[in-house]
Amino acid sequence: MAKTILIATDYSLESLNILKKVLKEKDASEDQNQYNILLTSGYDSGDSIRDLLFNTKTTVFNKIRPAEFCDAYGIIKNKYPHLVNKIICDVFTGSFQRTFNQYVESENIEEAYYSPSIKSKGKGKFDLIPYIKKCKELQSKEIKVEVQERLPERGRLAEIFVEV
Known about the structure:
Blueprint: E1 3-8, H1 16-28, E2 35-43, H2 49-54, H3 57-64, H4 67-79, E3 84-92, H5 97-106, E4 109-114, E5 125-126, H6 129-134, E6 139-142
Parallel strand pairs: 1-2, 1-4, 2-3, 4-6
Antiparallel strand pairs: 2-5
Protein backbone atom coordinates (compact mmCIF):
# COMPACT_ATOMS: atom_id res chain seq x y z
CA MET A 1 0.00 0.00 0.00
CA ALA A 2 1.33 3.40 -0.94
CA LYS A 3 2.01 5.98 1.73
CA THR A 4 1.09 9.60 1.16
CA ILE A 5 3.50 12.45 1.73
CA LEU A 6 2.86 16.17 1.44
CA ILE A 7 5.47 18.55 0.11
CA ALA A 8 4.82 22.24 0.67
CA THR A 9 5.54 24.04 -2.56
CA ASP A 10 5.13 27.41 -4.22
CA TYR A 11 5.14 25.79 -7.69
CA SER A 12 8.58 27.11 -8.50
CA LEU A 13 11.32 24.90 -9.89
CA GLU A 14 13.39 25.59 -6.74
CA SER A 15 10.67 23.99 -4.63
CA LEU A 16 11.13 20.71 -6.50
CA ASN A 17 14.52 20.44 -4.82
CA ILE A 18 12.57 19.35 -1.72
CA LEU A 19 11.07 16.48 -3.72
CA LYS A 20 14.48 15.58 -5.15
CA LYS A 21 16.07 15.50 -1.70
CA VAL A 22 13.28 13.44 -0.14
CA LEU A 23 13.33 10.85 -2.93
CA LYS A 24 17.14 10.76 -2.96
CA GLU A 25 17.14 10.14 0.80
CA LYS A 26 14.51 7.38 0.53
CA ASP A 27 16.40 5.80 -2.37
CA ALA A 28 19.66 5.85 -0.40
CA SER A 29 17.97 4.17 2.57
CA GLU A 30 16.61 1.50 0.18
CA ASP A 31 13.03 2.25 1.18
CA GLN A 32 10.68 -0.43 -0.20
CA ASN A 33 7.51 1.69 0.06
CA GLN A 34 5.76 3.47 -2.78
CA TYR A 35 4.56 6.98 -2.21
CA ASN A 36 1.69 9.14 -3.38
CA ILE A 37 3.13 12.63 -3.35
CA LEU A 38 0.97 15.70 -2.84
CA LEU A 39 2.65 18.90 -4.01
CA THR A 40 0.52 21.39 -2.15
CA SER A 41 0.39 25.13 -1.81
CA GLY A 42 -1.98 27.31 0.14
CA TYR A 43 -4.35 29.31 -2.02
CA ASP A 44 -6.74 32.02 -0.89
CA SER A 45 -9.75 31.69 -3.15
CA GLY A 46 -11.17 35.00 -1.91
CA ASP A 47 -14.65 35.96 -0.84
CA SER A 48 -16.12 36.82 -4.21
CA ILE A 49 -19.18 34.74 -5.06
CA ARG A 50 -18.22 34.88 -8.73
CA ASP A 51 -14.73 33.52 -8.02
CA LEU A 52 -16.08 30.78 -5.76
CA LEU A 53 -18.62 29.70 -8.38
CA PHE A 54 -16.51 29.82 -11.52
CA ASN A 55 -12.95 29.07 -10.42
CA THR A 56 -11.93 25.44 -10.62
CA LYS A 57 -8.65 23.83 -9.66
CA THR A 58 -7.65 23.97 -13.32
CA THR A 59 -8.12 27.75 -13.49
CA VAL A 60 -6.23 28.15 -10.21
CA PHE A 61 -3.35 26.00 -11.49
CA ASN A 62 -3.28 27.99 -14.73
CA LYS A 63 -2.67 31.08 -12.59
CA ILE A 64 -0.08 29.76 -10.14
CA ARG A 65 1.71 26.78 -11.75
CA PRO A 66 4.06 27.18 -14.71
CA ALA A 67 4.16 24.47 -17.39
CA GLU A 68 7.85 23.82 -16.66
CA PHE A 69 6.88 22.69 -13.17
CA CYS A 70 4.80 19.78 -14.53
CA ASP A 71 7.55 18.75 -16.92
CA ALA A 72 10.11 18.90 -14.12
CA TYR A 73 8.22 16.75 -11.64
CA GLY A 74 7.55 14.27 -14.46
CA ILE A 75 11.30 13.95 -14.97
CA ILE A 76 11.85 13.44 -11.24
CA LYS A 77 9.06 10.85 -11.15
CA ASN A 78 10.70 8.95 -13.99
CA LYS A 79 14.02 8.96 -12.12
CA TYR A 80 12.48 7.17 -9.11
CA PRO A 81 9.72 4.92 -10.54
CA HIS A 82 10.18 2.37 -7.75
CA LEU A 83 9.38 5.02 -5.09
CA VAL A 84 6.68 7.14 -6.74
CA ASN A 85 3.20 5.75 -7.24
CA LYS A 86 1.73 9.07 -8.33
CA ILE A 87 2.30 12.80 -7.97
CA ILE A 88 -0.67 15.10 -7.48
CA CYS A 89 -0.67 18.89 -7.44
CA ASP A 90 -3.17 20.34 -5.01
CA VAL A 91 -4.11 23.56 -3.27
CA PHE A 92 -5.25 23.96 0.30
CA THR A 93 -7.89 26.68 0.43
CA GLY A 94 -8.80 26.69 4.12
CA SER A 95 -7.76 29.26 6.67
CA PHE A 96 -8.12 27.37 9.95
CA GLN A 97 -5.86 24.78 11.55
CA ARG A 98 -8.74 22.34 12.00
CA THR A 99 -9.47 22.56 8.27
CA PHE A 100 -5.86 21.65 7.54
CA ASN A 101 -6.04 18.77 10.02
CA GLN A 102 -9.14 17.46 8.23
CA TYR A 103 -7.33 17.80 4.90
CA VAL A 104 -4.44 15.72 6.28
CA GLU A 105 -6.84 13.09 7.60
CA SER A 106 -8.93 12.89 4.43
CA GLU A 107 -5.88 12.54 2.19
CA ASN A 108 -4.22 10.00 4.57
CA ILE A 109 -1.05 12.07 4.69
CA GLU A 110 1.58 10.51 6.93
CA GLU A 111 4.64 12.68 6.35
CA ALA A 112 5.19 16.29 5.37
CA TYR A 113 8.29 18.07 4.11
CA TYR A 114 8.92 21.78 3.80
CA SER A 115 11.71 24.28 3.43
CA PRO A 116 11.72 27.68 5.10
CA SER A 117 13.49 29.13 2.06
CA ILE A 118 10.48 28.33 -0.16
CA LYS A 119 7.78 30.88 0.61
CA SER A 120 4.43 30.82 -1.13
CA LYS A 121 3.56 34.42 -1.83
CA GLY A 122 1.77 36.32 -4.54
CA LYS A 123 -1.10 35.35 -6.85
CA GLY A 124 -3.25 34.39 -3.84
CA LYS A 125 -0.80 31.82 -2.50
CA PHE A 126 -0.03 31.51 1.21
CA ASP A 127 2.50 29.53 3.21
CA LEU A 128 1.55 26.08 4.58
CA ILE A 129 4.50 25.78 6.97
CA PRO A 130 2.66 27.12 10.09
CA TYR A 131 -0.17 24.63 9.48
CA ILE A 132 2.26 21.74 9.00
CA LYS A 133 4.17 22.57 12.18
CA LYS A 134 0.98 22.73 14.27
CA CYS A 135 -0.56 19.51 12.91
CA LYS A 136 -0.07 16.80 15.53
CA GLU A 137 -1.03 13.90 13.24
CA LEU A 138 1.81 14.61 10.80
CA GLN A 139 5.47 13.65 10.93
CA SER A 140 7.01 16.79 9.51
CA LYS A 141 10.58 17.40 8.52
CA GLU A 142 12.38 20.54 7.46
CA ILE A 143 14.54 20.21 4.36
CA LYS A 144 17.40 22.63 3.82
CA VAL A 145 17.33 23.95 0.26
CA GLU A 146 19.87 26.47 -0.85
CA VAL A 147 18.52 28.96 -3.35
CA GLN A 148 21.46 30.09 -5.47
CA GLU A 149 21.28 33.72 -6.48
CA ARG A 150 23.26 33.34 -9.68
CA LEU A 151 22.07 30.36 -11.64
CA PRO A 152 22.11 30.48 -15.46
CA GLU A 153 19.36 27.84 -15.63
CA ARG A 154 16.98 29.73 -13.30
CA GLY A 155 13.37 29.40 -14.42
CA ARG A 156 14.17 26.85 -17.09
CA LEU A 157 13.63 23.11 -17.06
CA ALA A 158 17.40 22.56 -16.89
CA GLU A 159 17.29 23.95 -13.34
CA ILE A 160 16.11 20.60 -11.94
CA PHE A 161 19.30 18.92 -13.13
CA VAL A 162 21.42 21.14 -10.89
CA GLU A 163 22.64 19.14 -7.90
CA VAL A 164 21.40 20.39 -4.55
